[in-house]
Amino acid sequence: MKIGNHADKCLSFVSCQISPEAKQWQPHTKSPPTVTISRQTGTGAMAIAEELAVFLQASQPKPCHWTVFDKNLVAQVLADHKLPMEVAKYMPEDRVSAIQDAVEELLGLHPPTKELLQLSSDTIMHLAHLGHVILIGHAANVITRDMKNAFHVRLVAPLDMRVAQVMERNQLDSKTAAEFIRKSDLGRKRFLKDHFHADIDDVLQYDLVINTARLPQREVALLIGEAVVYWAKRL
To answer: I want to staple 66 with a disulfide (CB 3.0 to 4.6 A). Which of 53, 59, 181, 233 is the partner?
Structure first.
């Protein structure tokens, strides 16, 4: 996992949030809106999130730009809690093998999983409270479910479309892409079930569920953006 560029984005966002300009622009104590995105593998979540950030920033310009946290969420956890970079590889949300994780923890290869999850949850809650963030995966929708300023999205699509996306993005053949999707989706499902007792496919967890096969990615982002803008006005 490449942390450098992601860490730079984290630093830029946090630095802006504590700047005098940001405090002057947002003098009240109400938390600005936050968006969480849960996704099936191969639904184009990152591209959609980036388009969404541009739309939301343009809808109401503000000193601290809307920022997407995906891989850079791990970088933020490391920075917040002064953890070594080596810990990053033990923090993906789609790890499948609980046995491997338990053995590695027993051998002292990484901090206890519960401790890492707590640190990650603390960072997610902090970012969500700051607002103007789009949090992809990492159980962000479950962790922030009681926060009134969090809007939750789920992206889904038929398997054949997702296989095609992963083939193009990762330069894989169809069989390898399908297996990659199977393992990733299974890992995320088990991650939520084992650690948060939640079902990732429970649609009642989300404010909006979109089949990304039905619209171009930009249109999906605009659809989410319009919903968020309307919802945020009612906060």
So the answer is: 53
Q: Is the pLDDT of residue 51 over 70?
A: yes
Rounded to 5 degrees, what angle do the CA atoms 148, 151, 154 make? 145
Question: CA angle 70-97-200, nearest 5°?
Answer: 50
Mean pLDDT: which of 81-85, 89-93, 112-116, 183-187 is highest? 183-187
Residues ≥6 apart with Cβ < 8 Å to 136: 36, 37, 39, 45, 46, 49, 68, 69, 70, 73
Cα 89 to the center of its chain, rounded Å: 17
What value, to the nearest 5°, has the Cα angle with vertex 135 and ends 66 and 195? Answer: 165
Quick one: DSSP state of residue 88?
G
30, 102 in Cβ contact below 8 A? no
Look up the pTM and report it.
Answer: 0.81
Q: How far is 109 from 181, CA to CA, in rounded Å?
A: 27
3-state SS of the chain: helix, strand, coil percent to 5? 60, 10, 30
Which domains are assigned to the chain? 4-8+31-233 (3.40.50.300)
Sheet with 133-136: list strands edge to edge: 67-69, 133-136, 34-39, 150-156, 208-211
Beta strand spans in the chain (E): 34-39, 67-69, 133-136, 150-156, 208-211
Among candidate residues 233, 212, 232, 230, the one with its CA nearest the CA of residue 51? 212
Whether the per-residue pLDDT at 231 is higher than 80: the answer is: yes
- Measure the CA–CA gap between 200 and 57, rounded to whole angstroms: 29
